[in-house]
Design a protein that fits this description.
By secondary structure, this protein is mainly α. The chain has a single domain, classed as ABC transporter involved in vitamin B12 uptake, BtuC (Orthogonal Bundle), CATH 1.10.3470. The chain is built from eleven helices and four strands, in the order ααααβββααααβααα. The strands form two sheets. A two-stranded antiparallel sheet has the order 1-4. A hairpin with a 2-residue loop joins strand 2 and strand 3. The C terminus is likely disordered.
Length: 303
């Protein structure tokens, strides 16, 4: 049932929350779409990289009491390097194998990361020490907006701007887009395929690490399985926008965040079906437009 008590102030507040959540989905979805654009691989371990970034941030700020810029920067870098390690150990040896082998390897890598975290950190959720800079509420008239809800879209825009610059304005980015179009021809032209694919995993994993830190501050706790649901939601966002398309991943993330926040706000009776709405949307989209909003014909996805 529609909620008639939603005034303009409440609507704007929920809209900012939707933008914040959608920005997180977009940040994580980029990693899925970059890897798929080049290897046609759904990297199911991508959501668990989010979890690794959050745990490294917890250790840096909480255990070692490092300044948060140092701890968060190290968390993002280590998560990026872990993504490169996964590509080198779990995916590169199977690149010429049937695609189902790569998919199974990705699922195995996901379970490996989750269970390693379970053994090392235990299954009990741990609180995430949110730095003071990200705390507090900004009052604007009748609006009371958490500072983090405003910072998340800004940080996401910064990371995405840097990524789009790399992909569309550098030689490495041109190589990525060429490999996404025709890997065999690009390899015959002397491009180091392995190096470019490793760079793709590095960039996607860096964004996953940043997304993990922002997610852990927005929902301040960490556990070994925290990356599963946001990873799945980001995958839905990538498919929604057109997996293999960077702009589509951003659009899909923002749209998914908008639907998840605004529909329960306007129709409170549907609040318990928030996750069902996301997965139902995926099913409907695949039935109506299998390539996504900005996707192209199967086999022609490009960065």
């Amino acid at each position: 049932m529609y909620n008639p008590a939603v005034d303009l102030g409440t609507f704007l507040q929920q809209l900012i929350n939707a933008l914040s959540l959608g920005s997180l989905y977009a940040l994580i979805a980029i990693g899925y779409t970059m890897v798929y654009g080049i290897l046609r691989l759904i990297n199911f371990a991508h959501g668990d990289l989010l979890m690794v970034g959050a745990y490294v941030g917890v250790m840096g700020v909480g255990m070692f009491t490092w300044p948060w810029p140092l701890a968060f920067g190290l968390a993002v870098v280590l998560t990026g390097l872990l993504g490169v390690l996964l590509e080198r150990g779990a995916y590169r040896p199977l690149r010429q194998a049937p695609r189902i082998s790569l998919l199974i390897s990705a699922i195995a890598a996901s379970f490996l990361l989750e269970n390693l975290a379970l053994v090392i950190f235990g299954g009990r959720p741990n609180p995430f020490p949110v730095p003071h800079f990200f705390q507090g509420v900004i009052a604007w008239g009748e609006l009371f907006i958490p500072r983090l809800s405003l910072l998340i879209p800004g940080v996401t825009a910064l990371f995405l701007g840097l990524l789009f610059w790399v992909v569309y304005r550098t030689r490495a980015g041109r190589a990525m887009r060429a490999i996404a179009f025709d890997m065999e021809t690009v390899s015959l032209m002397g491009v180091n395929i392995n190096r470019i694919i490793a760079l793709t995993f590095l960039l996607g994993s860096l964004l996953a690490g940043a997304g993990g830190l922002l997610w852990a501050m927005k929902y301040p706790q960490v556990n070994p399985f925290m990356g599963i649901l946001p990873g799945l939601k980001a995958f839905i966002a990538a498919v929604l926008g057109g997996i293999g398309n960077l702009t589509g991943a951003v659009l899909g993330g923002l749209l998914l965040g908008l639907l998840e926040i605004m529909i329960p706000a306007l129709f409170p009776d549907w609040a318990g079906y928030r996750d069902a709405l996301a997965f139902g949307l995926l099913i409907i989209l695949l039935l109506v437009r299998p390539t996504g909003l900005l996707g192209e014909a199967l086999g022609e996805e490009k960065l």
